[in-house]
Design brief:
218 residues; mainly alpha; Glutaredoxin; Glutathione S-transferase Yfyf (Class Pi), Chain A, domain 2; 2 domains; two-stranded antiparallel sheet; 9 helices; Thioredoxin-like_sf; Glutathione S-transferase; GST_C; Glutathione-S-Trfase_C-like; glutathione transferase activity
């Protein structure tokens, strides 16, 4: 499934870093069982999580920053403290909208499937599309414009750009008309550019995981 784990897969792809995904090809129930086994030796809230040597991390912004810091001589890390902090703030905002999207499609029970509560999710989805998503679109569109249209942080690709691409990709899949009609021309051009990067393009062409249609990103 192309959920939160895809943020990390895309980063590994861009950086050309090999990794072992223990959940690959597993059903939701099997994955839950693996997670429970992992919790016997690690303290964490939920997957996705990464293990590197004696480092074990969860939470998307923390993992994404760690990958950027550790891999390919820090190529995807912001170049100074100010930009580093700004990147962390952008990632926190990105996680906010991902969470709001998930909760809208899984309402009122955030632990139950979308299929089991389609009727009750209809109003939260409508509110998300009409009131919440435009605010995030406007913020990210303006943030990108203010930084020169090419990158979100500094003047070179960062982990924020790769993660932002995945969110936009999920929105376009789940809400194609909303995505195309939104006043976000800079974001749409940004998404096209990131998709054309050689390693990202290869990942997009070869990945077997699919969006499941139960929200922009599960």
């Amino acid at each position: 499934m192309l959920g939160r784990g895809e943020f990390l897969r895309l980063l590994f792809a861009e950086l050309n870093v090999p990794y072992n995904e223990v959940m690959q090809g597993k059903s939701f129930q099997d994955g839950y069982g693996i997670q429970q086994e992992m919790k016997k030796s690690h303290t964490f809230f939920a997957i996705p999580a990464i293990e590197h040597g004696d480092i074990f991390l969860w939470q998307t912004p923390v993992m994404a920053r760690y990958i950027a810091l550790q891999c390919d001589e820090g190529r995807l890390m912001p170049k100074n403290e100010k930009d580093d902090l700004y990147a962390q703030a952008l990632m926190a905002t990105l996680v906010d909208v991902v969470g709001e999207g998930h909760d809208a499609w899984h309402s009122p029970d955030h632990n139950a499937s979308y299929e089991s509560q389609k009727e009750s999710s209809a109003l939260p989805i409508k509110i998300f599309i009409e009131k919440r998503l435009p605010k995030f679109f406007d913020f990210f569109e303006n943030s990108l414009k203010k930084n020169g249209n090419q990158f979100f942080v500094g003047q070179s690709l960062s982990y924020v750009d790769v993660c932002m691409f995945h969110w936009l990709d999920g929105i376009e899949y789940q809400l194609p008309e909303v995505y195309q009609q939104a006043n976000i021309p800079t974001l749409r051009e940004f998404k096209k550019r990131i998709a054309q990067r050689p390693n990202i393009a290869k990942r997009l062409e070869t990945r077997t995981e699919k969006y499941d249609g139960t929200g922009p990103i599960f």
